Structure formats: structure tokens, C-alpha cells
């Protein structure tokens, strides 16, 4: 089998970084993806039988997408050609497809691996379609973004999507042990001394990325004195521990969703955790302030009207203090919103009113509610019969109709039995009953 992509099983082993040298060469060497390639799983059975299909591999960095693409080619006894959507354009795509056509004419199959495929535009993605349909290429696209949003439907319809997971810390530790023991490709000939706790620390710092863990181990090995990776060495290696976070991708939207739903579920511990995760990942604190203001309006609502004011105060506090002091105000807001009583009654009332407006169109304003600034308008009856509520006993003209004729008796706002809305419900129930009785008496 010929691997035409530079840097993949081609250069002298000694020149490759540890993560590349330890790249799995068989399905049994893959760590952490048992749900996809474990014994008896459909993809594994297909690969072992040589029945390969075009596919999209969706998963976070360092989870094994490139490795799996290489193994697809190996198990299918096909040539392997790799291009990166970051560094390649349409001419590179056409060149790769032309090479695949040549192989096809000679009876050879080609696995065309496209890394970061979501970065190709629609025209570039469409270029693969006829070659996939004819079987010229076995297309393997790798992406860290949700294919449903980033890839066009025509390409998705011709590929199966396999979702890969971030590798667990335990599985990463297993990969580190393998690298330490392997004398041919790994660090086994160095006689390194490292304890289990240190390996777990490296695995944790890698944040689900096997490649990153192996890179950290290799750096630690280079810095180790007398072959011993101790706490001082690890402190140097792990000084900059960054977490996975994409300010415009799947991780971003998943985490803001988790924050919002934690607040809605009245879980202050989860709310402050997800807020901190996003701040730690570099999310704009003002974006979080804006989103939590939305939560105060949508999910807390009139059950605790102070939440709205607190959200604006926290927003203002951050703008005045900046980071990191202002972030404490955001944390306090997240906790308060989570603990506060919840009501989406106003939110639902607005949505119901909006749907009614859309359905019923431009209903006329009742004549007695219309403004009458001119003699002509007064002569036409504008404002006739209007009752000034402050002059009525009790301060409410109960028999006065305020909705259009077609909507009389319809309700939009239904307070919940939580927080301040308990009192609002009591008052509104009594008021609506009094209005209904007044209408009946008037009729």
C-alpha cells in the first residue's frame, strides 16, 4: 500500500515526534473509541472485512480521526492521499482527484482524507461528489464541527457520520504507558522513571487529546534529570494548561446551552461551573452578561423582578471593574439567577400575543380607546365612552373593553405559583373574575 501523504509513515522514525511514532497501526491499538471501533461494532466489522465506505469523522482534536482514516486505507488495501482544507484550495483538490482517477484506471482504490473538511466552501465540497458516487475515491472527512451545520447536504448524503469522543483520562494513561514501554517507537529505551500520579496529571492536562498527552510526555522526558520525571519537571511542562474551547464552534454553543439550562433548572453549582468554564476558555464576559440578562427576563421573569435589575447591575459592574474583579459579579449573578424562583409566564404571554397578531392581522382598536385630537375624529366617535380609570371607584373601569372585539375574553398572561407571581396570580384572578361579571351585567 502506498501512502502518498508526506509525514505519514514515510519519514525516518527518529525525526518524528512521539505522538506520530506512537500512532496506532491496528484497530486494537486505538484507545478510547470502543463505541465506534470496539469488538463487534459495525465499523470495525466492515473494516476487517475490507468493506469500506465514505465517511465523516466528527470529534474533538486528538481523538484519533487521522489515525482511523489511515487504518481505513490499510484495511481496505488502498492508496492513501491526505489534504488539509486549511492549506489547500480547489486546485489541490483537483490534483488529488486526478491522481485518484489514475489509480482507479489501474484498478487501485484511493482513500482521500480531507482534514478540517468543514473549512471547504460549498463549491469545494461539491467537487468530491461525482468521484464518491463512481467509487473513484473512498472519502474520509475529518471535522471538529457539527457536520449538520458545516457540511452541505449533498456530501452528507453520500457519507456515514461517525462521532468520536474525547478520550478519557484513563485511556490516555494507557496510551502513555504504551509509549513508555515501547522500545521501538516510544520511550522504552530511555529507562524513564515516572509514577502513576504524574501520568494521571499529564492525562488530565491533555483534556481528552491523546496527541497532546504524548507531546507533554515527550517534553517531560527531555527535561527530566537522571531519567526521572518529578513534580518540578511536571510543573514546567504543565505551566500552561489550556482547556478545549472554540469561541465560534460546537464547544461554545454546548457550554452556553449548559449554562442557560443549569440556571433554568435552579442548579447554582452547575451554573457557576459552566460560567467559569466559558470564562476560562476565553469567552467575552460581556457576552455572558448579555446572555444572563436574557435568562433573567425569560426564565426568572416576574417571579423575581429584582433579577432583571441584578443582571444589569452585574453587566455594569464588569464594565466598570474589568477582569478579573468584574467576573465575580457575573458569578454572583449566575448563582442568584439559579436560586431565584422561575417563571416564563411573561415570555409565554408575549409569544402567544405575537402568534395571535400574526394569525389575526390588523384588528381595529375599539372606538372608545382611540385618540381624538381633532374635531373630525371626535365627530366620528373616536374616544366616545372612554372611562378614565382613576375617576372610577376602585381605580379600575371593570366593564371597559380594551382588546379588539374579536379577542374579547382571551388571555395571554398566566402567572405561575412561584415567587412574586403567587401574589400577581391572586390579584389577576380576582380582577379577571370581576371584569367577566361586569361584562355579563352590561350585556
Automatic annotation (TrEMBL):
Transmembrane segments: none
Keyword ATP-binding carried by entry: yes
InterPro entries listed in its UniProt record: AAA+_ATPase (IPR003593), AAA_assoc_2 (IPR032423), AAA_ATPase_RarA/MGS1/WRNIP1 (IPR051314), ATPase_AAA_core (IPR003959), DNA_pol3_clamp-load_cplx_C (IPR008921), MgsA_C (IPR021886), P-loop_NTPase (IPR027417)
Record-annotated AAA+ ATPase domain positions: 51-167
Pfam families according to UniProt: AAA, AAA_assoc_2, MgsA_C
Keywords: ATP-binding, Nucleotide-binding
Family per similarity comment: Belongs to the AAA ATPase family. RarA/MGS1/WRNIP1 subfamily.
PANTHER family tied to this protein: ATPASE WRNIP1, WERNER HELICASE-INTERACTING PROTEIN 1 FAMILY MEMBER
Summary of the function given for this chain in its UniProt record: DNA-dependent ATPase that plays important roles in cellular responses to stalled DNA replication processes.
Record protein name field: Replication-associated recombination protein A
Amino acid at each position: 500500500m502506498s501512502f502518498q501523504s508526506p509525514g505519514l509513515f514515510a519519514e525516518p522514525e527518529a525525526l518524528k515526534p512521539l505522538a506520530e511514532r506512537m500512532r496506532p497501526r491496528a484497530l486494537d491499538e486505538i484507545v478510547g473509541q470502543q463505541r465506534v471501533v470496539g469488538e463487534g461494532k459495525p465499523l470495525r466489522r466492515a473494516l476487517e472485512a475490507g468493506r469500506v465506505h465514505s465517511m465523516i469523522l466528527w470529534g474533538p482534536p486528538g481523538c484519533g480521526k487521522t489515525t482511523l482514516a489511515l487504518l481505513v486505507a490499510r484495511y481496505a488495501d488502498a492508496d492513501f492521499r491526505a489534504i488539509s482544507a486549511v492549506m489547500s484550495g480547489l486546485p489541490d483538490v483537483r490534483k488529488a482527484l486526478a491522481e485518484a482517477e489514475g489509480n482507479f484506471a489501474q484498478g487501485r482504490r484511493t482513500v482521500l482524507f480531507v482534514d478540517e473538511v468543514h473549512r471547504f466552501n460549498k463549491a469545494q465540497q461539491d467537487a468530491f461528489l461525482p468521484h464518491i458516487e463512481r467509487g473513484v475515491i473512498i472519502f474520509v472527512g475529518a471535522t471538529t464541527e457539527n457536520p449538520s451545520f458545516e457540511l452541505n447536504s449533498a456530501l452528507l448524503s453520500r457519507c456515514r457520520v461517525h462521532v468520536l469522543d474525547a478520550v478519557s483520562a484513563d485511556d490516555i494513561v494507557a496510551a502513555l504507558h504504551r509509549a513508555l514501554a515501547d522500545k521501538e517507537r516510544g520511550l522504552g529505551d530511555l529507562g524513564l522513571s515516572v509514577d502513576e500520579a504524574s501520568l494521571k496529571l499529564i492525562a488530565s492536562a491533555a483534556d481528552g487529546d491523546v496527541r497532546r498527552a504524548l507531546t507533554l510526555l515527550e517534553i517531560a522526558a527531555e527535561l527530566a534529570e537522571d531519567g526521572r520525571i518529578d513534580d518540578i519537571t511536571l510543573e514546567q511542562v504543565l505551566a500552561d494548561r489550556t482547556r478545549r474551547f472554540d469561541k465560534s464552534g460546537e464547544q461554545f454553543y454546548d457550554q452556553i446551552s449548559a449554562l442557560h439550562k443549569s440556571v433554568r433548572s435552579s442548579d447554582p453549582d452547575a451554573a457557576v461551573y459552566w460560567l467559569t468554564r466559558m470564562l476560562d476558555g476565553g469567552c467575552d464576559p460581556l457576552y455572558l452578561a448579555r446572555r444572563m440578562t436574557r435568562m433573567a427576563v425569560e426564565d426568572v421573569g416576574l417571579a423575581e423582578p429584582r433579577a432583571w435589575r441584578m443582571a444589569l447591575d452585574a453587566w455594569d459592574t464588569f464594565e466598570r471593574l474589568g477582569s478579573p474583579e468584574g467576573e465575580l459579579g457575573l458569578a454572583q449573578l449566575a448563582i442568584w439567577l439559579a436560586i431565584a424562583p422561575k417563571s416564563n409566564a411573561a415570555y409565554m404571554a408575549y409569544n402567544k400575543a405575537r402568534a395571535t397578531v400574526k394569525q389575526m392581522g390588523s384588528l381595529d382598536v375599539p372606538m372608545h380607546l382611540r385618540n381624538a385630537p381633532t374635531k373630525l375624529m371626535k365627530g366620528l366617535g373616536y374616544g366616545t365612552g372612554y372611562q378614565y380609570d382613576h375617576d372610577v371607584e376602585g381605580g379600575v373601569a371593570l366593564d371597559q373593553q380594551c382588546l379588539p372585539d374579536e379577542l374579547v375574553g382571551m388571555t395571554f398572561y398566566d402567572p405561575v405559583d412561584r415567587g412574586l407571581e403567587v401574589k400577581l396570580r391572586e390579584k389577576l384572578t380576582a380582577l379577571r373574575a370581576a371584569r367577566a361579571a361586569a361584562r355579563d351585567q352590561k350585556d
